[in-house]
Amino acid sequence: MTAKRILVTGGAGFIGSELVTQLAAAGHRVVVVDNLVNGKRANLAHLADADVELVEVDIRQREVIARLVQGVEIVYHLACLGVRHSLHDPFENHDVNATGTLILLDLARRADVPRFVYVSSSEVYGTARWVPMTEEHPTYPMTVYGGGKLAGECYTRAFWESYRYPTVVVRPFNSFGPRSHHEGDSGEVIPKFMLRAMAGLPMVIFGDGTQTRDFTYVSDTARGIMLAGMVDAAIGGTFNLGQGREISINELARTVATVVGRPDAAIVYDIPRPGDVLRLYADSTRAQHVLGFTPTVSLQEGLQRLQEWYLSRGVAIADLLAEERVHNWKKEESVNL
């Protein structure tokens, strides 16, 4: 594989930093664009400065981005604000996720960047009408986040259809693993469950726990994203990236508790989250056939790796939990352990 100059937006975030790690390991030179609202410099600290350059900038700053895309061969666009953020700040969420994508597409095309990969989300589907969910499944997002990500998809495909600008859309289902978010309005279920179980605190389930997700380990997700920018047959396409296994949140809680050695960990049930998708289950056959994408890390193994990562950090679990917000779709909330 020939070394390329690649720009990754959101590259200091959870999935983005894993993508950057894999790109650098493959010999590519990576420019990371991240405003560090959700991303962290520490997520890239293990990478050599000769391989990765971090530029702290918002993707909506057109003049800066216009300079950064010059000479780039692939743009991987992951920068976004999350689903819970959209519930308390819908206009900002749309502006970053939808308008920011349009700005980046325009600048990349003007700079003749040969490939643009847009990282969308399974949230564009809303709740499954049938399973497993192919890319032809109806899109009926239930939050402004899902709507904004779908708008970004539409802009990305429109640039291919209108200008024949080479774009690819990927739809990762729920990812987990090291550097995942437990904190603030970015906090996700697996890290929150794991940290609480490790601390001997009850895991909090919103609703009745029968809602399902399809969890993919982050290294598998990032590899699928990377392949989308490297395979010519992907141009103009849309691809699911998922493990292909459905699990209820109730079963997930029991599984996490067992992995961390607390099989009797308590579970408490709380109010349903607004706009919560009730069922997700990916069919990634297209990505397997076109991209060569095949997940290799099981849920059980991934959970064990995540626990090992937490234990290796040298940070007290209580200190990490101090950053948690239970009802993290609300604008502000005092910490509630």
From TrEMBL:
Domain (NAD(P)-binding) spans 7-305
Organism, by scientific name, is: Chloroflexus aurantiacus (strain ATCC 29366 / DSM 635 / J-10-fl)
User: Which protein are we looking at?
Assistant: NAD-dependent epimerase/dehydratase
Q: Where are the transmembrane segments?
A: none
User: One Pfam family, short name please?
Assistant: GDP_Man_Dehyd
The record's annotation in InterPro entries points to: NAD(P)-bd_dom, NAD(P)-bd_dom_sf
